[in-house]
Structure formats: C-alpha cells, structure tokens
Amino acid sequence: MSPLPGIGADPASSSVASIPVTGRRNLVFDTLGREICAGVIAPQATFTTESIESRFQVSRSVVREALRALEAQGLITPKRRVGVRVLPLTDWNVYDLQVIRWRLAGPSRVAQLRSLTELRAAIEPAAARMAALRAPLNQASDLVGLAGRLWAAGREGDAPKFLDLDKEFHALILTMSGNEMFAQLHHLVAEVLTGRTQYDLMPKYPAPEALQMHVDIATAIQTGNAEKAAASMVSIMDRTLAEMSSIWEQKAPIIG
Question: Which fold has domain 11-90?
Fold first, then answer.
C-alpha cells in the first residue's frame, strides 16, 4: 500500500495532540477534502487508515469519522483489501457546499465558478418569472427596497455591503418563486457571488447597467410583469457570463 501521493507529514502534526477530538476530525476531513478537490491526491489513488493516522498523529476513530464524512460527499469509497480509493469528479456530491468551497479554494476555481454561473443562468430567470406571478406584495416591496440599497452600495464601491445585499436579493427571488427546490439553491448562489468577490473577479464599482437591471427585476416582480422579470434576469446572467468568459477561457483542465 502506497502512502498519499506527493504528501509528506503535516507541520502541525506534532502539536495535534493539543487539539480537541472534534478539531482533529475536522483537521483531517478538511485537509484531505481540499487535497482531493485540488487534485493533490489524484482520482483512483488509494491509501489506508493507518497512513492517515501516521500522517496526522491521530487515533483510528478520528480517521474513520473523517473518512465517513468524505465518503458521504462522494470523494472516496472503501475498497476491500486495499483501503480507501479516491473517486473522480463525476462521483462527487458537487452540490455540497463544502465541496464547492474546496473547489473554489483550489486550481479548479474557475471551472467551479463557471458551473455555478451556468446553473444560475438556467434557474434564476425562471425563478424571477414565477416570483412575478406568485410573490406576496410585502415580499415584492422588500425586493424593491433591496434593489435600491444594492444600487447605493454599488455606486459607493462598498464591496462587502454590496455582496451581502446581492446575496439577499437573489435569495429572496428564489424564495418568492414559490418553488421550495429553487429556494434551497440560494446557498449555491451565495457561494458563487462570494467566490467572485473573494477572488477579485468582481469590479469595485459595478456597471450602472447591472445595477439598473436589478431595479428592473424588482419593479417587474412588484408589478406582476413576469416576462420583463425573466428578461431582466436573463440580461444579468448574460452580462455575468460575458464578464467571466475571458477568465474561464484560460482555465486549467477540470479535475477528475
């Protein structure tokens, strides 16, 4: 049985005994997850629980808990008489927020942003259309207020405030769609918006046209204009895809 490919002992392993049990489990879980999602541990690689115990200087029970969590995310699978095998991207639970964060933190960042943005482009115009037909008046009014505050934050170049308001704006539209499955996607939208900001893929001052599109969506939803709401959201998604295209055209190959 070979050790983990290309990975030596962790610098923190000598002091891991001072970390509480839950913290040790999280350390193993997070480190292996990041390395698998980054391709440091390649698909089809195998390793044993003993190799992980030795690397992190933790107990077998801690290792097993961490590996069970990684297995639940589709990153690894037990392999009889071999140990644990790393699975390819096609087997991962790509909707898991932790998997998304690990991918955003690694070399597949742009590929992950592209996938999330394309998902948004497919879902959010439909959500805006349904929101215009179904949203209660009080929620529609809240959305108009959000659009106004979003506009102000964008014009002021207040990136943290703009990000928070943008996440709230798009989450509210997904909720207002009246479709509980759309509503659950707000976490994914938040991750792509956060990722673009965190990795400097957002302009400090959003274009006035983009700010106006948010106002147009909110107004269309408030007035029950489903087609305009959808069309305005399509415009936002088209603009986002165009802004990102020059970045992901230069992306590294997708891992897995």
Answer: Arc Repressor Mutant, subunit A (1.10.10)
